[in-house]
C-alpha cells in the first residue's frame, strides 16, 4: 500500500531530506524542487508533500498523510490526535524564557507580560511556576517585543542564540528541549501497519537508535 508523508518545510526540510536519503529513500525530487508541492519517491511506493508545521499535524490527523515529520514545538502547542512514534534527533533547539539584560520577568514585582508565538506552552510553563502572567500572542520576530516594551519577556525558540544576542536579549530559563518527531495517523497505523513500521525501521536504522519514543 502506498504511504503519504507530510514533511515540514523550512528549517527542518534539509535535515529531513538528508535523513530520508540516508535511509534509502528516493527523495531527489524533493531536494530539487521548484515550486512543486507533491513528490513521488523514485524507489518506493511513497508520496511526499511539503507543508507548514501546523498543517503537517492537520494532514496527519485527517489521514491525508499517514506519516508526518514535524518539530516537537508544534506538537506541544497544538492538537494531539496522532501517535508520536520517533524522535529523529534533528532540528534540535530549545524553548527559552528571555528578556532584556538585568530585567528578568521572574524578578518583576506586579503585572508581568510575556510575548510568545506559543501561548499554550508558555501558559503551562508559568502555571507550573505558580506565576500569573499576561500572555501576548505574537506571530513572528518575537525578540522585537521586549525591545519595544510590548512585554517583559518572551517564550521562544532558540537554536544558535544569534537572534537573542544580536538584539541584546539574554536567557533567563530553559522551558524544554525540542527536536523533530515522526507522527502517525491512528487509523493508518492499523491499516498500513507493515508499511509504516518499515518506514520507522528504516529511519531508526540510519539514526542508530533502537527505542521508539512516545512523548
Ligand atoms: C525562530 C525563533 C527565533 C529564531 C532563533 O524564528 O522564533 O526568532 O528562530 O534562532 P537562533 O537562535 O538560531 O537565532 P524563525 O526564524 O523560525 O522565524 P519567526 O521569527 O517568524 O518565528
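^ C-alpha cells above, recovered residues below v
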Amino acid at each position: 500500500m502506498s504511504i503519504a508523508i507530510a514533511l515540514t518545510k523550512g528549517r527542518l526540510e534539509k535535515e529531513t531530506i538528508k535523513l530520508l536519503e540516508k535511509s534509502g529513500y528516493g527523495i531527489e525530487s524533493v531536494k530539487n524542487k521548484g515550486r512543486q508541492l507533491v513528490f513521488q519517491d523514485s524507489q518506493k511506493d511513497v508520496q511526499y508533500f511539503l507543508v507548514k508545521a501546523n498543517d503537517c499535524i492537520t494532514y496527519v490527523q485527517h489521514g491525508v498523510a499517514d506519516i508526518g515529520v514535524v518539530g516537537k514545538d508544534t506538537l506541544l502547542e497544538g492538537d494531539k490526535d496522532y501517535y508520536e512514534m520517533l524522535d529523529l534527533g534533528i532540528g534540535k533547539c530549545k524553548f527559552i524564557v528571555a528578556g532584556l539584560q538585568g530585567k528578568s520577568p521572574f524578578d518583576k514585582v506586579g503585572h508581568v507580560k510575556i510575548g510568545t508565538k506559543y501561548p499554550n506552552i508558555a501558559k503551562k510553563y508559568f502555571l507550573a511556576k505558580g506565576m500569573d502572567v499576561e500572555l501576548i500572542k505574537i506571530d513572528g520576530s518575537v525578540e522585537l517585543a521586549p525591545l519595544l516594551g510590548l512585554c517583559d519577556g518572551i517564550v521562544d525558540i532558540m537554536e544558535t542564540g544569534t537572534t537573542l544576542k544580536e538584539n541584546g536579549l539574554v536567557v533567563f530559563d530553559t522551558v524544554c528541549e525540542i527536536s523533530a518527531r515522526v507522527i502517525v495517523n491512528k487509523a493508518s497505523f492499523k491499516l498500513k501497519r507493515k508499511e509504516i513500521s518499515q518506514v520507522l525501521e528504516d529511519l531508526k536504522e540510519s539514526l542508530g537508535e533502537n527505542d521508539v519514543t512516545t512523548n
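The longest strand covers residues 169-178.
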